[in-house]
Design brief:
The protein has 9 helices and 7 strands; from the N terminus they run ααααααβαββαββαββ. By secondary structure, it is α+β, with helices and mostly antiparallel strands. Helix 1 runs antiparallel to helix 6, helix 5 runs antiparallel to helix 6 and helix 8 packs antiparallel against helix 9.
């Protein structure tokens, strides 16, 4: 009997030792894999994400340089003495952003892209110096020919080189996300194997450990996916204001009417400002991972007017009436200008994109003050959401079954991320065949100093004011 008790004791001891060994081995392996995952996410945070930020900023400065050169020649040919200081500053910012990007660790084959960016930038610098020199010498025809015939191609080639570098970094983010997922799967199988050795005595502890690990893995994977989606979203959101800049510059370059040319250049300048604010505010929010300071406030009217101006052209191309209804008293919300621009632009652009072939083509933006919040509604006369989709439309990569319109399914996910990150609420009401109404609410804020009174909104088809109380 005593020998049996001793034997049982050793069985218990060995079993407990096995449980402890399995627990230590499981935990050690999990920590090893977690360290690898942390290293991968750190790579994204200190290399790919800053690379995309600097490259996007450089591309915006490149377009700003083209705009300033046009303005410089225009002013000089009109007999006015333009200052070269804005040109010097934008070239310094462009070079500074690219130098900051070059200072980051290089990905495989990225140095070849660096050389391409440097080469194309050198061509742009030479052309810019020639245009300024010809303008200073009074050779305006030669300067204008360089602006129209040579500079756009050089700008486009440099922009293409920058986009290639952005795509390389975005692809690396995707690869890292796949590596993190592969590490997660291998770790799960290994942990399950070790936990099986401990049998019933380790079940409770093993389940608790696995649940904790799974939550950590889900959080890490979710953050990696958000970084990947954000990298793509930055490039996507920039296309709209950049397209508006290009259209305005084309109008200015081809118009002999001075007033029309000045109006087109003003629109281009506003679009560049919106693009820069969009980059700064969205990237700052993504890095912070928390709501902005309560002091941040944006006047609603200015943002709505800017979004309507940017999206007027794509709406007119599809014969869509784009209208806005603002409150009689100007209001402001507690968020950055770029954030509110991204929210409204995503919703209105989504409505235009999915309008389809409908008998009535209308998109209306409505803004109203409700106690301490400001409510925004974007209603369209499109086909509505597919049955059963509902609020899932705000999830990343979710698109309606049978949707033929190209896209990544990240626009509405970005809307939810920004709204919830700014203590807001959002939702959607839709019936198949009867259109959709997307809405969100943000905390109200006092109007920022110097905000102008709200002007009447415009109709994208008729251009007439439609302000309502």
């Amino acid at each position: 009997m005593r020998e049996a008790r001793v034997s049982s004791k050793w069985v218990i001891v060995l079993t407990l030792a096995t449980v402890v060994a399995a627990f230590i081995g499981s935990t050690g392996y999990a920590e090893y894999r977690a360290a690898q995952t942390h290293a991968l996410t750190t790579e994204i945070a200190i290399n790919e994400s800053p690379s995309i930020e600097y490259l996007a900023a450089a591309r915006a400065e490149l377009r700003d340089l083209q705009r300033l050169l046009n303005t410089h020649v225009l002013l000089a040919s009109d007999g006015r003495a333009p200052s070269t200081e804005p040109l010097r500053q934008v070239r310094e910012r462009l070079r500074s952003n690219l130098e900051a990007y070059f200072a980051l660790p290089a990905l495989p084959h990225e140095r070849e892209l660096w050389r391409g960016i440097e080469k194309e930038l050198a061509d742009v610098d030479v052309l810019a110096d020639q245009i300024v020199a010809r303008t200073a010498a009074g050779r305006f025809d030669e300067a204008r020919r360089a602006l129209v015939d040579v500079l756009p191609r050089a700008i486009d080639e440099e922009a293409d080189a920058i986009i290639a570098a952005i795509r390389l970094n975005a692809e690396r983010v995707r690869q890292v996300a796949e590596q993190i997922e592969g590490a997660r799967r291998r770790r799960m199988w290994w942990v399950f194997g070790l936990d099986g050795v401990s049998v019933m005595l380790a079940i409770a502890l093993a389940v608790l450990a696995l649940r904790t690990i799974a939550r950590q893995e889900d959080l890490q994977r979710h953050r990696s996916e958000e970084l990947e989606g954000f990298a793509r979203r930055v490039a996507h959101d920039l296309l709209n204001p950049i397209a508006a800049v290009e259209l305005s510059l084309g109008t200015a370059a081809g118009s002999p009417d001075g007033a029309r040319r000045a109006s087109a250049l003003a629109r281009a300048s506003r679009s560049v400002d919106r693009a820069r604010r969009l980059i700064d505010d969205l990237l700052a929010f993504a890095r912070a991972g928390s709501p902005p300071a309560t002091a941040s406030a944006t006047a609603v009217t200015e943002v709505v007017e800017g979004v309507m101006e940017e999206l007027r052209a794509p709406a007119l191309e599809r014969s869509i009436a784009l209208r806005a209804e603002l409150p009689a008293v100007p209001v402001a919300v507690r968020c950055a200008t770029g954030v509110l621009t991204s929210l409204l632009s995503n919703l209105v652009r989504n409505a235009i994109k999915h309008m389809g072939d409908r008998p009535r083509l209308e998109v209306e933006v409505r803004v109203s003050r409700e106690r301490d919040r400001v409510r925004f509604e974007v209603e369209d006369s499109g086909p509505g959401l597919p049955p059963g989709l509902g609020s899932r439309v705000f999830d990343p990569y979710v698109r309606g079954a049978g949707t033929a319109t190209p896209g990544l399914g990240l626009g509405l996910a970005t809307v939810r991320l920004l709204v919830e990150g700014h203590d807001g609420r959002l939702g959607v009401r839709s019936k198949p065949g009867e259109g959709s109404l997307f809405w969100f609410e943000l905390p109200g804020a006092p109007l920022p100093p110097g905000s102008p009174a709200a002007p009447p909104p415009t109709d994208a088809r008729s251009g007439g004011p439609t302000q309502r109380a």
